[in-house]
Amino acid sequence: xxDNILKNLNISQFxxxxxxxxxxxxxxxxxxxxxxxxxxxxxxxxxxxxxVDTVIPYFNRFIEKYPTVYDLxxxxxxxxxKTWEGLGYYSRARNLQNAVKEVVSEYGGKVPSTPKELxxxxxxxxxxxxxxxxxxxxxxxxxxxxxxxxxxxxxxxxEEDIAQQRTKKLFEEYVRQLISEEDPSSFNxxxxxxxATICTPKSxxxxxxxxxxxxxxxxxxIQEDLPVKxxxxxxxxxxxxxxxxxxxxxxxxxxxxxxxxxLANLWQFPMGPVHEIGMEHLENxxxxxxxxxxxxxxxxxxxxxxxxxxxxxxxxxxxxTEQTKAEDHRLTFVDQKxxxxxxxxxxxxxxxxxxxxxx
Length: 359
Known about the structure:
It is a single chain. This protein has 359 residues and is an alpha+beta fold. It contains 16 helices and seven strands. The strands form two sheets. Strands 4-1-6-5 form a four-stranded mixed beta sheet. The chain has a three-stranded antiparallel beta sheet with strand order 3-2-7, with no helix packed on it.
């Protein structure tokens, strides 16, 4: 099947056109200054679900704080999450640190250079594995994500649904046949740059594309119809009441989320599922759930936070308590000036402005 798809493509000329364009136009990114597999690894994990411009300052701060695998392996997880704070998808940070610990303990601090060993590390899927092996170790391994599938779906006029896992496997096979054996590092980075700057999801800048004469979709005028992707399921919306609970000592109650699942090990202000209990029962629910007697105050604001699979609708309220000690292990009383030391998800970071004296 791949032979039929590629039969009209001059692979040698295609590679030359792509690599010559990349050499002239490649983006100046901090993780490209050297081929350090650890730094490339960190960058690729950060770049999942996050734009390059957002990642750059986070990457620089992270590497300054944890310049080697040894520094990250030895770090306290709460400090790592605090450094990651704002990037979202916090399981990426936890998996990265766990995998780095394995690199230190099992591989003497050297990031593995074989597909099997590297792919066996926590949080390293086929794309990240291919990116590290090709960029850092110059091995001809495909690194296929949505960005890359968009480029090749147009280039080769592939009309399979890219949401299907079998389609991704097809793209990996195409890239494996097309990748430059001499310079796979530049090849994969060139495709990444092309997808980010020219072969964009909407209104691709085909007039500036170095691969225009190789592109089947452009030839047929269907570049904006590709890639084909089935619509995702509609996100579920859940309303919560968030309480900014303060005692007479000026301390606020914060809650540590579970070790597993959404936003694991981050901190938040306690939330009540009002769709289940109703606002009129909120004070009683907090006592039965946390052993905390609270008096509900005025509403301070509203927030909507969108995850990939669900939406939180958050109504934020002041609340008071006479207690100075939490009976529930999830809760902690924290002086207002110390709250910023704890890693919070973005939605709850935004609530800090509603704390007394912060507005």
